[in-house]
Amino acid sequence: MTVMEAKIVHISIERNWRDVYAFASKPENTPLWASGLGDGLGPDGEDWVAHGPLGSVRIRFTPINDLGVLDHLVIMESGMRVNNALRVVPNGDGAEVMFTLLKLPGMSKEQFDADANWVQKDLNTLKKLLEA
Predict the structure, then answer these.
(1) What are 42-65's pLDDT values in tens digits?
(2) CATH of domain 6-131
(3) CB neighbour list of residue 99: distance below 8 Å, 6 or more residues apart
(4) Are 49 and 41 in contact (CB under 8 A)?
């Protein structure tokens, strides 16, 4: 079994964690803050489909839950499947949003760092939206 290098990208948001979860758990809100998934996100059965730099991707979101879990499976056109762990947890009166970024096989350090920067940019956008 291969264990991939991982990096936790996170941000504190001055808004109740349940409000953050309620907003971020709606797939239709995803394009407002998660640019990494691409454009044109729309429902397709139980999944959602987006069009981005890597082509069309199918996204399967975790069902609504009381634990702040926003995990989602991204299925690339190539068939590659990427499990993304995303959590919203209480942080005082606010929230902490944490994304576990995995360094995929064949990914360079530069690509991994660029992905981490992209995720941080998206989390910054989420913060701005929810603190406005």
Answers:
(1) 898 999 998 876 678 899 999 999
(2) 3.30.530.20
(3) 8, 9, 10, 84, 85, 86, 119, 123
(4) yes
